[in-house]
């Protein structure tokens, strides 16, 4: 008889098994009779004494859930799984083709000597970067900070924040369109001056987070009295104080001014050391020969002192002086109770109604009059060297030649130049253009300097070549 496995040691082909042939289960030591696996009637013909291995195997397969009519390992995927897996591509990180040595250290890693040059170079870079990871991290953080604070607009928000850069505390007031369209027509030069001046102030205020107020100073019938039209500077300052309630300092600039050094912030240039950059004793530079200080005994101590109370927080007005006295083409005024009182007196009708023929410079002459005659003005007024915020070109105040206290110096990189009085016999547009080009030259980036150096060198060589050709 053909069996599926080795011949059975028993007659009839059956296997001797306690669970299949014995009517009693003596494996566990229990002597009580019970039905055996062979006594169960599955197909109605099996008994305990006639159980063969083939029948037991068939019963086991039925218990496991494989039906008699189904086939295993006959599906498409089952038959071809091995073929598919062997046909897939294999990847090796090294050039070694023999994988019999399973413990070789080079397996699964970049080959240092046996790989390509690119692999060795990348390995070297990776190891170097890992050794210098701390320094590289610091360097990348520094580069990221530069990108965030100098390339993106984030640096403007930082400079403008009152608790960081403090740019929101400053307002630049620019007088524009003087006399345009009513008293006289504005020509191409006047429009060019206004365009360059406005662009210059916009660039500066945007860089440092300041507010810019461009005031239309065109001559028009805005006020009831005809002479008040020329005194709107004071009225404009009061309107700006109402418009910017959080601002502290207001910087007035005439249209014919040009900021030569846009890299100078007002905080660092002046206000971080206000006492060091200003002086209260007018005797330091006194072109008007004003007697200072007052000597009346009824005045308080700050009014009789040449330097007031000596504190920076009591300074509310900062004025430069030129060869003729006070100059209001560029000055600072601070928001305070004292300032409100000053603007009220400064805007008094007595000034513009009765003194308009005597005071040629309007608010400027009125301010000089108040400083000379009102003791309460001096303790809160400070003067600043003219070249700090209001340098003149050689054509202004040039009767006595160049004055180091007044005229612009390229070597010292003065902050602002004011073409004051250029409309009286000088070329305003020519001066504005020259100083604009000089400012662009002085504030070039290193890359721009490199390009200009190459360009100048090429022009020099071409000039020498042309001279040699003409000489030959």
From TrEMBL:
Keyword set, alphabetical order = Glycosyltransferase, Membrane, Transferase, Transmembrane, Transmembrane helix
Q: Name one Pfam family in it.
A: Glyco_transf_34
Example of a GO MF term: glycosyltransferase activity
Q: Where is the composition biased (Low complexity)?
A: 1-10
Where along the chain is composition biased (Polar residues)? 23-50
Give me the Gene Ontology terms describing cellular component: Golgi membrane
Give GO BP annotations, semicolon-separated. protein N-linked glycosylation
- Positions of region (Disordered): 1-50
Query: Which residue ranges run through the membrane?
Result: 134-152
Is DNA repair among the key words of this record? no
Family designation: Belongs to the glycosyltransferase 34 family.
Which named protein is this? Glycosyltransferase family 34 protein
Q: Which organism is it from?
A: Letharia columbiana
